[in-house]
Amino acid sequence: MADTSDIPPVAPAPRLAHGRLWRLFNGWSLLGLAIAAVVILPIATVFWLALFPEENIWPHMLDTTLPRYLRNSIVMMLGVGVLAGGVGTLAAWLVVMYRFPGRNVVQLALLLPLSLPAYIAAFAVVDFLEYAGPLQTWMRGVFGWATPRDYMFPEIRSRGIAILVLASALYPYVYFLTRSVFQTQSGAAIEVARALGCGPFQSFYRVGLPLARPAIAASVAIVMMETLNEFGAMEFFAVQTLTTGIFSVWLDGNNAGGAAQLACVILVFVMVLVLLEKFSRRRIKFHETARNMRPPKPMELSGKSAWAALAFCTAPILTGFVLPLAILLDHATGRWILWADPALWAATLRTIVLAGLAALITVGAGLLLVFSVRLMRNLFMTRLLPITTIGYAAPGAVLGLGILFPFAAMDHSVADFILWVTGFDPGLLLVGSMGAVVIAYCVRFFAISVGTIDAAFTKISPSLGMASRSLGKTPRQTLFQLYTPMIKGAVATAGLLIFVDAAKELPATLLLYSKTTLATEVYSKASLEDIEGAAPAALIIVLISLFAVVVASASNRD
After folding, report:
1. Residues 6 or more apart in contact with residue 263 via CB below 8 angstroms
2. Residue ranges of the domains in the chain?
3. Which run of H or E residues covers position 81?
4. Residue 483 in contact with residue 371, Cβ under 8 Å?
5. What Å distances lie between residue 474 and 65, 348, 382, 477, CA to CA?
6. What is the C-alpha separation between 525 and 510, in angstroms, rounded?
7. Class of the CATH domain delimited by 28-56+334-527
């Protein structure tokens, strides 16, 4: 046998290192990083503008407007959160735990206010309740009052009425999530509580409420974030919040740095809400031990109790949907010249195109990002995924600010290059275009896409993907031939929700798009007190949103 003692040993191939490099730098990882970078860029831009403003007016805002913005924002968030949380939770408990006349209709109708954007409800309610509106005009005619001093009527454009209107529009978030929890909890817990002598209130307070607390906390946090994001309703009610302050400082004061600093305050509020929501349920864990869990069996109500339950569940439907819709229909019905306006249908077409593009791009990007994270299975990509959902918590005004400046910088660079090459000045190509507002929609609603698609992926066994790869399928073939057909329902749901939310989005559209959409058409007409002119566009938005609400409610029947 030959002597091999002098031959140096061969170093083993660095498979682990190559594997890690492949996981970090292959095409799917780079694609995921690129998508995440686009989503995170607006938020990073806002912080950059806030830290390095051209003119620092932060000390001036601290002494003048910021305390008012903070006070109004906090009061509005707390007021709307408490009222919407109470109404949504109690309504969910009643429709799940009790049977009363009209229950089957009411449990679906309680979702209808989601189809009516808060700013549209605000325009309609103010038009109905103000001094020259139908209600006060009727009161003066019936009782013979001549001036406002002859009778007492609450100030309409105030924080109190704004809280009522926003809570009526946003309580379905709490109702929807809480009802799902009540429907899936074990009926045995409620039966044991009743057997131990707990009445209806004690059963709710001691059993139902603790079990639903995580869902209530999460949904109330969403309501408070939506309240902070609201611009049209706040401006119409003359309530100056941090969001309206962004528009005022930026557009009226021509100070982007100050607007970015207000935007950072909003982001701090949002992060505090998210942390409080997570902290509130950090030690709350419930596990179902029974193999065959029975859903709760509704109790039959009769007499005054039944009618009281029906009245409680019907009241938010009337105030949040029926009354505003009736006012809009009254303004729009019979005035066919409003419906024949070419500008209305041009705005409708733009809205459908913008929302459709946003839905397609956001769902496609979300699908690719979630798949790349699951394909790579490395810690960095896994931790990056939740960060990409921060856009949903950021108000549209914040995203509009963060997107406008990068687009403006690219615009000027492209225009300068074209001018240098051809001698022709093309002007601004990106700012005010469809591209800017579509990106804002994608960033704003990317969390819907990621959350829905990731939840669908978790229901698919990992062994199916491994089997596909072992049969020689590429990652692209595995995604489109195996996974996509299995999660097409979740993809369609995410696309529908994004389409509707994009059609209703107002602040980002006002800041980034130079042409009118349905949302900006409603805002521009209503801000001029032309509720009649705003009614057709508002009704089209309601019809678009109503379709999604009907689909969502039909898929969640008990």
Report:
1. 46, 50, 246, 395, 397, 398, 401, 402
2. 28-56+334-527, 65-175+218-283+299-330
3. helix 66-97
4. yes
5. 58, 42, 21, 5
6. 13
7. mainly alpha
Contacts of 325 (CB under 8 A, 6+ apart): 116, 124, 542
Q: Spelled out in words, what is the top-level CATH class assigned to the domain 65-175+218-283+299-330?
A: mainly alpha
For residue 147, the cross-strand partners are none
Please tell me the pTM assigned to this model. Answer: 0.80
DSSP designation for 432: B
Angle at 182 between CA 178 and CA 186, to 5 degrees: 150
d(CA 235, CA 119) in angstroms, rounded, equals 9
Burial tier of 472 (Cβ tally within 10 Å: 0-12, 13-18, 19+): exposed
Cα–Cα distance list, 251 to 269, 507, 537 (Å): 23, 13, 25
Kindly state the tokens that stand for 497: 């929700």
Can you give the pLDDT at residue 187?
Answer: 57
Q: Using CA atoms, how far apart are residues 401 and 257, in angstroms rounded to an integer?
A: 10
pLDDT of 277 higher than 60: yes
**Each residue of 331-356: pLDDT tens digit?**
888 778 888 889 999 999 999 999 99
CA distance 69 to 72: 5
Amino acid identity at 547: F
- What is the distance between the alpha carbons of residues 352 and 358, in angstroms, rounded to a whole number? 10
Residues 6+ apart with CB under 8 A from 98: 298, 299, 300, 301, 309
* 97: confidence class by pLDDT, cuts 50, 70, 90: confident
**pLDDT recorded at residue 252:** 78
Distance between CA 311 and CA 314 in Å, rounded? 5
The helix/strand/coil state of 466 is helix
